[in-house]
Specification:
With about 375 residues, this protein is mainly alpha-helical. About 60% of the residues lie in helices and about 0% in strands. It has 14 helices and no strands. The chain is globular and about 75 Å long. It starts with 19 loop residues before the first helix and ends in a 12-residue tail after the last helix.
Length: about 375
C-alpha cells in the first residue's frame, strides 16, 4: 500500500524535497535548536513572576496605565497625566519612549468602562477567526483543525484576560497577528493599516513592519513594499510629535531609564514566550522544548505566511535576547497570539525530515523469460 504524501497537511512540508545529506544537516540544526531552547533553564527568572501569566511587576505597570486612562477620562491632558503618574510611581521619564504613546489611553478613555474589555474580546475573537480560516486551508482533516484551534486558544491565554486591557503589548500583539493573518499576495492594505495601529500603540511593533517591508521587497511586491514604507513614515512622524510633547513636560531632573542592554540571550526569549502562553502551565524543560518544536513547525509549513511568521519570530528573538531586561519579558506578547499553532505542522515536518536518512532503497530483481 502506498504511503500517504502527508499526515496532517494539505501539501508536503518544506522538508519533503530534501535529499539525504541535506536532511541530515537539517536534523542537526533541529537538535541544536532544541539544545539552545534548553538554555532557558539557565537564564534568570523574570522579575517577580509569582502569580498569573503576567508578573506582579507588570501588575504595578497596569495600575499606572489604568490611572492614566482614568485621568484622561476625567478631562486631563494625556502628557501631564502620564508623566505625573510615572513620577509618582518612581518610573523613568527619559528618554522620551519611556512614556507610552497616547493612542491606547485616549481610545480607552473615550469608551465606557466596559468598552475596552468588550473591544479586546472582539479583537481576540477576530484574530482567532482569521487564523482559524488560514490554518484550515492548510489542514484538510478535522482532527488537525481542532488541534489548531486549541493551540490558538492556548496562545491567547493572556489576551483573554480583562484585567490586562490597559496593557499595550496585549493590543499590539493582537493587531500584529491580525495583520499577518490577513496578508496575502496582492492584499496588503488592511495588513498595513493594522500594523500601523499596532505601532501607534507600542513602538516595538515597528520591527514587524520592517520585516514585512523587507520580505515584500525581496519577493518583488513593490506596491506592498511602498505601503509598508508609507506606514513606517507615518509612524515616524507620530513618534517625532510624541517626542516633542514629552520634552515639553519633562526635564533633566526626571529619572532616566537604566537602558536596554540586557544581553540575556536566546534562552530568555524562550522563557518569555513560555510565560506569555499556556506553556507557563508546564515545567520549564518541557515548555522550552515545545517552544523549539513550535519554531520547527513554522519552518516546516511551506507557505509564504509561515515564512513571514518565522522571520518575525526570529526578529523578536533577537530584540528580546539582546535588549530586553528581566523585567521586560512581556515583550514576547508581541508575537505570542498564534505562536503555539506552529505545533500542528510538526508531524509532517518530522516525517519529511527523517524519511530520507531512514529510507533504505530496495533493489527489485525482475526475471525475464526468454
Amino acid at each position: 500500500m502506498a504511503r500517504s504524501a502527508t499526515l496532517w497537511l494539505a501539501a508536503p512540508s518544506r522538508f519533503a524535497a530534501l535529499g539525504r545529506a541535506r536532511a541530515r544537516l537539517a536534523i542537526g540544526v533541529l537538535v541544536l535548536l532544541l539544545v539552545a531552547c534548553l538554555t532557558a533553564l539557565k537564564v534568570p527568572d523574570p522579575a517577580a513572576v509569582s502569580t498569573g501569566p503576567i508578573g506582579q511587576s507588570d501588575q504595578t505597570d497596569l495600575m499606572v496605565y489604568e490611572k492614566i486612562v482614568a485621568g484622561v477620562r476625567n478631562g486631563g491632558d494625556y502628557y501631564i497625566v502620564a508623566t505625573d503618574a510615572l513620577r509618582a510611581g518612581g518610573y523613568p521619564l527619559r528618554p522620551f519612549f519611556t512614556v507610552r504613546m497616547p493612542s491606547l489611553a485616549v481610545m480607552q478613555a473615550a469608551l465606557p468602562p466596559w468598552g475596552p474589555t468588550a473591544l479586546l474580546y472582539l479583537l481576540a475573537a477576530y484574530v482567532g477567526m482569521v487564523w482559524g480560516l488560514r490554518l484550515g486551508e492548510a489542514l484538510p482533516r478535522t482532527l488537525p483543525r481542532i488541534a489548531a484551534l486549541l493551540l490558538l486558544l492556548g496562545s491567547m491565554l493572556a489576551f483573554l484576560q480583562a484585567d490586562l486591557a490597559a496593557f499595550h503589548e496585549i493590543w499590539a500583539g493582537l493587531l500584529i497577528a491580525l495583520s499577518l493573518g490577513m496578508r496575502r499576495p496582492g492584499r496588503w492594505l488592511e495588513p498595513v493599516a493594522f500594523a500601523l495601529a499596532a505601532m501607534l500603540i507600542r513602538e516595538t511593533a515597528a520591527l514587524y513592519a520592517l520585516v514585512m517591508l523587507a520580505l515584500a521587497w525581496l519577493e518583488g511586491e513593490r506596491r506592498e513594499a511602498l505601503g509598508w514604507l508609507a506606514a513606517l513614515a507615518l509612524f515616524a512622524a507620530a513618534l517625532a510629535a510624541h517626542a516633542h510633547a514629552v520634552a515639553g513636560v519633562t526635564g533633566p531632573l526626571d529619572p532616566a531609564s537604566p537602558g536596554w542592554n540586557g544581553l540575556l540571550g536566546f534562552g530568555f526569549f524562550v522563557k518569555a514566550l513560555s510565560l506569555a502562553t499556556a506553556l507557563q502551565l508546564l515545567p520549564m524543560t518541557a515548555a522550552a522544548l515545545l517552544v523549539g518544536l513550535c519554531l520547527f513547525g513554522w519552518a516546516s509549513w511551506n507557505d509564504p505566511l509561515a515564512l513571514r511568521m518565522l522571520v518575525t519570530l526570529a526578529a523578536y528573538a533577537a530584540l528580546i535576547g539582546i535588549f530586553a531586561r528581566s523585567d521586560t519579558f512581556y515583550w514576547a506578547l508581541m508575537v505570542a497570539p498564534v505562536f503555539l499553532a506552529g505545533l500542528v505542522f510538526v508531524p509532517d515536518g518530522l516525517r519529511d525530515l527523517f524519511r530520507p536518512p531512514l529510507d533504505r532503497r530496495r533493489i527489485t530483481v525482475t526475471r525475464v523469460a526468454r
